[in-house]
From TrEMBL:
Domain Asn/Gln amidotransferase: 329-476
Gene3D superfamilies on file: 1.10.10.410, GatB domain, N-terminal subdomain (1.10.150.380)
Chemical reaction(s) catalysed: L-aspartyl-tRNA(Asn) + L-glutamine + ATP + H2O = L-asparaginyl-tRNA(Asn) + L-glutamate + ADP + phosphate + 2 H(+); L-glutamyl-tRNA(Gln) + L-glutamine + ATP + H2O = L-glutaminyl-tRNA(Gln) + L-glutamate + ADP + phosphate + H(+)
Function: Allows the formation of correctly charged Asn-tRNA(Asn) or Gln-tRNA(Gln) through the transamidation of misacylated Asp-tRNA(Asn) or Glu-tRNA(Gln) in organisms which lack either or both of asparaginyl-tRNA or glutaminyl-tRNA synthetases. The reaction takes place in the presence of glutamine and ATP through an activated phospho-Asp-tRNA(Asn) or phospho-Glu-tRNA(Gln).
The protein's assembly and partners: Heterotrimer of A, B and C subunits.
Similarity field: Belongs to the GatB/GatE family. GatB subfamily.
Source superkingdom: Bacteria
Signal peptide: none
UniProt KW keywords: ATP-binding, Ligase, Nucleotide-binding, Protein biosynthesis, Transferase
E.C. number(s) listed in UniProt: 6.3.5.-
InterPro entries, sorted: Asn/Gln-tRNA_amidoTrfase_suB/E, Asn/Gln-tRNA_Trfase_suB/E_cat, Asn/Gln_amidotransferase, Asn/Gln_tRNA_amidoTrase-B-like, GatB, GatB_C_1, GatB_Yqey_C_2, Gln-tRNA_amidoTrfase_suB_CS
Protein's UniProt name: Aspartyl/glutamyl-tRNA(Asn/Gln) amidotransferase subunit B
């Protein structure tokens, strides 16, 4: 049998608000355990939730950015279950009337594009965090995250491979960051996803039993977990027909490299949803909707079109630049310092990305000041230093906070562009390489490269290569053998 993989994602995104969804506690990451809590977010008896208006605004922005319908009437519900990190023993979420529905994201897959449909976006509060102590019979709980506002984005089962799932997540993350809906820092849990995966024989339309993999918080782990679960299910269908795929929730054990059962998969009736009695339905008026939509910043595709039209940068390079909002912002900051757009794109997409492999610019920022890179580009373009010297200066700027001018002076890398000086050096090199001249005259054009190399060697690499080439070509025309 030939199978195809069916994947749908449920993505939890922490909204970029300063306070929680139903109280005024801060959402600051990294605070001391249980510092950002109050009777409301810890569910003390007699407390009442008050909806944070900014949460609704950001959810509307998210829905608009993801081409969703904004449901003008939506409501909150109680989702009943007990976990130690959910002190109320229920979660305030949205069930049958979510804030957004029926959207889509177009994802680039190589040279093609695929539309991934979004079923719904709903609002809810986050739960706390359990800390399991190694070799101890107890677990600790930190309620700081309890009540942090979330949107849950639920896709249709439109994804057909782990690679497509990762491509979708990367595109989604970019849109949400550009729209300033969330910082999407996966390492901090601001963006995490549950993946539903099943397989079926190609040609059939029936969806087989699915498995949910919980709490994946990096692109790398999403890919690995889905690949392993895909393999496990294929083996069960092909080689172990006596076993059936169980509808269950599994967790990804990165250390062991496999998914592990957690519990049987709950259905909506297991949660005993009912309307939240302490919150009125949310009615989104026209003026509110208009203000929210008007304040959406430039999105990735819009920025891509503008950069190509305004600056003539190649589409492939622009795709790299807009892939990380911080990188695109840096590119435009370099341009604002006077840099040539084509040169800036080349330096950033080649040299800067080479050194950014081990640097998280969302946390640490770009290691070279924008005005320093702009100045370096100017020094190379005006011939004051060679491109080779420019790359050396670039690498040094990554390690230090020195300006390119200071480093050029310190390392003695100023390029010789004085024509009369270079003519004297070229003449001396030619007089010492008569065989190369003869080879050139006998139809061996590669000889000019050898003469160029000898001239650069004589100047210790400081000569302007373009001027040197012009001088040598001119002199070779006049040489008589």
């Amino acid at each position: 049998m030939v199978f195809e993989t069916i994947i749908g994602l449920e993505i939890h995104v922490e909204l970029a608000t300063k306070s929680k969804i139903f109280c005024s506690c801060p959402t600051t990451f990294g605070s001391s355990p249980n510092e950002n809590t109050c009777p409301v977010c810890t569910g003390m008896p007699g407390t009442l939730p008050v909806l944070n208006e900014e949460v609704v605004t950001l959810a509307v922005k998210a829905g608009t950015a993801l081409s969703c319908e904004i449901n003008r009437i939506n409501k909150f519900d109680r989702k009943n279950y007990f976990y130690p990190d959910l002190p109320k023993a229920y979660q305030i979420s949205q069930f049958d009337l979510p804030i957004c529905s029926k959207g889509y994201v177009d994802v680039a897959l190589g040279e093609k594009s695929k539309r991934i449909n979004i079923t719904r976006i709903h609002l809810e509060e986050d739960a706390g965090k359990l800390i399991h102590l190694e070799d101890e019979p107890i677990s600790l709980v930190d309620y700081n995250r309890t009540g942090v506002p979330l949107i849950e984005i639920v896709t249709e089962p439109d994804l057909r491979s782990p690679e497509e799932a990762v491509a979708f997540l990367k595109t989604l993350k970019s849109i949400l960051q550009y729209a300033e809906i969330s910082d999407c820092k996966m390492e901090q849990g601001s963006l995490r996803c549950d993946a539903n995966i099943s397989i079926r024989e190609i040609g059939t339309e029936v969806l087989n039993t699915r498995v949910e993999i919980k709490n994946l918080n990096s692109f790398k782990e999403v890919l690995k977990a889905l690949e392993k679960e895909e393999k496990r299910q294929r083996e069960l269908y092909q080689y172990k027909e006596e076993y059936k795929i169980q509808q269950e929730t599994r967790k990804w054990d990165a250390a062991k490299g496999k998914t592990i059962p957690m519990r049987s998969k709950e259905e909506s009736h297991d949660y005993r949803y009912f309307p939240e009695p302490d919150l009125k339905p949310v009615l989104i008026e026209e003026d509110f909707l208009k203000r929210a939509i008007e304040n959406i910043p430039e999105l990735p595709e819009e920025r891509k079109r503008r950069i190509i039209q305004q600056h003539g940068v190649k589409e492939m390079q622009v795709d790299i630049l807009i892939g990380q909002k911080e990188l695109a912002d840096y590119f435009e900051e370099v341009l604002s310092c006077g840099a040539n757009p084509i040169e800036a794109a080349n330096w950033i997409t080649v040299d800067l990305l080479r050194v950014l492999k081990d640097i998280d610019i969302s946390e640490e920022g770009v290691p070279i000041k924008a005005n320093y890179l702009a100045k370096l580009i100017e020094l190379v373009q005006t011939g004051k230093i060679s491109r080779t010297a420019g790359k050396e200066i670039f690498d040094e700027m990554v390690r230090t906070d020195k300006s390119p001018e200071a480093l050029v002076e310190e390392k003695g890398l100023s390029q010789i562009s004085n024509t009369s000086e270079l003519e004297k050096i070229a003449a001396e090199v030619l007089s010492q390489n008569l065989q190369a001249i003869e080879d050139y005259k006998n139809g061996k054009p590669q000889a000019i490269g050898y003469i160029m190399g000898q001239t650069m060697k004589a100047t210790k690499g400081k000569a302007n290569p373009q001027i040197v080439k012009e001088i040598i070509e001119e002199k070779l025309k006049k040489v008589q053998i």
